[in-house]
Amino acid sequence: MLCVLFFFRNVRSTLVIAVSLPISLLATTAILRSMGITLNILTVSGLIVAMGRIVDDAIVILDNMYRKTQEHKGRPALQSLASAVVEMLPAIFASTATTVAVYIPIAFVGGIVGASYSGFAWSVVIAIAVSFFVAMLVLPALAFMGGKGIEAKSVSLEPLMKPVILGAMKRKKTVVGITLALLVLAAAGGSQLPFSLLPSATTGQVAVKVELPKGSTLPQVDAEVQKVESVLSQDSNVASYAAKLGSTGTPEADDVFDQGGGFIQQPNVANLSLALHDKRHLNAYIQSLQHTLDPVAGSAVITVSNQNIAGDDAQMKITLTGGDQRTLDQAAQTIREKLAAIDGLSVDGKADLSNGAVKYAIALNAAQIEKYGVNADDINQVVGRYRSKGKDFTVPSSKGAIPVDVYLDPIATGASKGSESTADVLKALAAETFAGKDGNPVRLDQLATIKTDTGPSTIQALDGKPFAVVTTEIVGSPMSKIAKEVNKTLAHTDLPQGVIYSMNGISTQVNQMIEEMIIAVSVSILLVLLIVSFVFKGLKAPLAVLVSIPLALSGVVLALYLIHGEWNLPALVGVLMLTGIVVTNGIVLIDKIERNRKEGMAVRDAVLNGSLSRIRPILMTAGTTVLTLIPLAVTQSGDAVVSQTLGIVVIGGDDHLHLEQSSGHSDLVRMDAGQKKRIRLFKRKRPLIKI
């Protein structure tokens, strides 16, 4: 409201506009509740974003009331207010309808965009629709309350901006050339920005993953974790740390975008979470800690990464099909070896590439078993004791049976402190004896052969066909660059005949997001063209309005470079929001220029008068929108990182957009009018755009 008070210099007028905010927001929340949409980070962000647009309609109406009151000081206040509202009704209706058309595709596009931003879109759409009726009905009534109408001296920007616009109109080719050059530079710079699904939240926490070869025992994993903890305990920047090892076989985390139902912590993997004192240089600290932990890794693979709020959305899964299980497992191992060399990529199973767990197979000799008369069930029972051990017993509880394992304490029992080697275990297994038919003991190695097994230990089926999965996680940045490196590596990897791979995870989700946003933007632009062409009875006005949409791109790209950002879902939604802002201001400006042309003004005078009369509401709208979004843009909360990116993108594009619309848009409209006039030299003169 400070921006409104600065321009109108009247407390009563400021309060009139301020009243429209709670009316619109309360009505919006009531409608959202009836639709079953709850208030959360995104819906509240939508309401905050809509505040600028809610005030926009009220500002345009109130500004026109000021203008009509000053132009017709002798007329009754009621007539001046009514004529001001009626005059702006087509433009406000068109701008409201087109803004709604911009957001509606987000709610119906489905997929990742619809799942995350449908509530955001509905909150904005409903708030804008309600604000239209508030601006048309409630605001004039409040302005006329007491029969006083509008009486105040507002700030006039016409003397200040007139020389600027005249200078731009005299050098229209230069202005248009500079605008196009900025657009080209913005497009070139925007193409170099990386892509990701969601922005990373710099929470000041670091994740450390310790992976040992499969088959490693829990004490072995614990020993490696203790090495890491000894390093962390001597690091002055580490405020606290916690370690989690072992596996319950249940998903540890999940999120709305996950395609795999969360992730399961494997028994050979430990995860540590670190909280830091100095959170400002997180990326530099991660690299430093990685170099510090590499020498103590031993047989483990240690990966240090930023612990953000995106869950397991940084995962990339390569699914292999088209062969038997052994062939697919070998191809998966080949891919792991190739991907392990990529910096910033953590490959599950990397610890098994050189020192993985060896599997053994026991091949029973049926003839020997029959010869010695040994019971096969006795053999299976003995061999079972050497395999994965079952639970000793269960304890009933209110939440179900709790499995319990019983172990002997080697210290208390005086047993050997060292663990038995694999060779010792295999010798003990081979020496197991069974009672033969004549009562003589028979060793297992007389009945079976124990040998190393290279075959698959499990068979996975997808649609009835075997498959193998290589799971990776992007721990470096930029994410899109690492994903491209993965695709390049896979393209140059020789796979067995018939084996094909498909990508899932973050790279697939980013591609899906881009496709959905392209659909949403295309539908939005089509709806805007239909609505504006219907209101203005032609196609020239829609084209003149939409010509400003690309101009906002340069401000968006500049804002992303300043914050070292990237293209992601909130940034693309912010671009879509800017489309609505462009359309709103463009419609109001073109509507005024066309009304001037219908009144008989020359093209130059119509453009100049229309631009000068709309500078104040445009700047007021821009200032209100920016001030509304500043709290989102400067927030330091990790939970609000999605809204923060959205606010920064809209502020960057909005500021640059209004600077362009103050001068460049008028030049584009006048150039188009001049061209039409020269082409139709021998025809009847018509306005630039039919009404």
Structure, described:
- The chain is built from 22 helices and 17 strands.
- The longest helix is centred in the C-terminal third of the chain and has 39 residues, at 641-679.
- A hairpin with a 2-residue loop joins strand 15 and strand 16.
- It is of the alpha+beta class and 691 residues long.
- It is 58% helix and 12% strand.
- One of its GO terms (molecular function) is xenobiotic transmembrane transporter activity.
- The chain crosses the membrane at residues 12-31, 37-60, 81-108, 120-144, 175-195, 517-536, 543-563, 569-590.
- Keywords: Membrane, Transmembrane, Transmembrane helix.
- It comes from Cohnella ginsengisoli.
Q: How would you summarize the topology of this molecule?
A:
Blueprint: H1 2-8, H2 11-34, H3 41-71, H4 77-108, H5 111-144, H6 158-170, H7 172-191, E1 205-211, H8 218-233, E2 238-245, E3 251-253, E4 263-264, E5 269-276, H9 282-293, E6 301-306, E7 315-321, H10 325-339, E8 345-347, H11 352-355, E9 359-364, H12 366-372, H13 376-386, E10 393-395, E11 402-404, H14 410-413, H15 422-430, E12 433-435, E13 441-443, E14 448-453, E15 461-462, E16 465-474, H16 479-491, E17 500-505, H17 506-536, H18 540-546, H19 551-562, H20 569-598, H21 603-633, H22 641-679
Antiparallel strand pairs: 1-5, 1-6, 2-5, 3-4, 7-16, 7-17, 8-16, 9-14, 10-11, 12-13, 15-16
Helix pairs in contact: 1-2, 1-21, 2-3, 2-5, 3-4, 3-5, 3-21, 4-5, 4-17, 4-20, 6-7, 6-21, 6-22, 7-19, 7-22, 17-18, 17-20, 18-20, 19-22, 20-21, 20-22, 21-22
